[in-house]
Sequence to fold (383 residues):
Amino acid sequence: METIQSQRHLSKPKILFKLFLSMLYISSCTFGGGFVIVTFMKRKFVDELGWLEENEMLDLIALSQSSPGAIAVNASILVGYRVAGFAGMLVSVIGTIIPPLVIISVISYFYKAFAANRYVALVLKGMQAGVAAVILDVTCDLGSKVIKLRRPYCIVLMAASFIAVFFFNVNVIYIIIVAAAAGVAVELIGRRKGACR
Amino acid sequence: MIYFKLFLSFLQVGLFSIGGGYAAIPLIQNQAVQLNGWLTMSEFTDLVTIAEMTPGPIAVNSATFVGIRIAGIPGALAATFGCIFPSCLIVSLLYWIYYRYKTVSVLQNVLLSLRPAVVALIASAGLSILQLVLFQGKAISVDNADWLGAGIFLAAFIVLRKFKVNPIIVMLCCGGVQLAASLLSF
Fold:
């Protein structure tokens, strides 16, 4: 289990600092649920820094989705471990929770005024449109790669999962379980074919 | 001791909320309102609103909010730590399993199937937010459409697709444009 830091012979303090700042930045600027933050993590760690591969990032997202707790925290634990081991995990989690800790602590003293403020509401509304654009931009990148795999079953799985979640509000956990089961089935079928030969 | 109590309560929230933010809300309500009486129901409703308006996971935001109101900054730290502690243990274990057995054929097929599902989940999250932007939770029809929101979305999407602009900057600009456009039209 080599970390990115040891693979690339980068100095540990430097990479920990970079990891911490990245998480701090992503966590303080991403509004909305867990999938918003993992989208920004993908942009930062896969596209910008090139520390993780795209498939690896998708695997880490699936793992963070299937364990208890906040998706953002889970994803930052996984990315932190991958980048710089245990120290990376600590630094990454601390970077992720400092912004909400500070912001909520401050807001808790005047939260009624904040929640009722018209300007705050307008800025947040505009940012929501931006968040939708960012997520769908990443979706286009990832989705086109799944299609390029040219494995019909992957495309069917993607379409079926989307319909189940978006139109029928199926619990995400069931999607993960069914997709994992489909993977096991593919393995078993592959083995049987192998045995026939 | 109140710190330990906060820690334990949010430990349960962290341990039993599988599937992110919205799964955590009923658990937080149960701990903070029903079991411990730390918040009234109307304070809890405010809390959910604030948690959605500010960055960060809902569970972490709630832990901080409840902790600071009950026992100040140390309370906020105790509650937040409780909330992320189960994740740290369980996710660390999963990480170890993932990198140890990633090359095993069964796990490779499982991961190959999980990736398209994850892409679908991300797509669904994005489209749900877009739907909220365009129709504000009202019925989907041309009459209810928010054209300003639609314009901002489209502009941001094109900028992101064509040029690799930093997404956080794009998002902040969208907030600015909405504020400016709304103020000018009043």
Observations:
- The radius of gyration of chain B is 21 Å.
- Chain B touches chain A through 95 residues (CB under 8 Å).
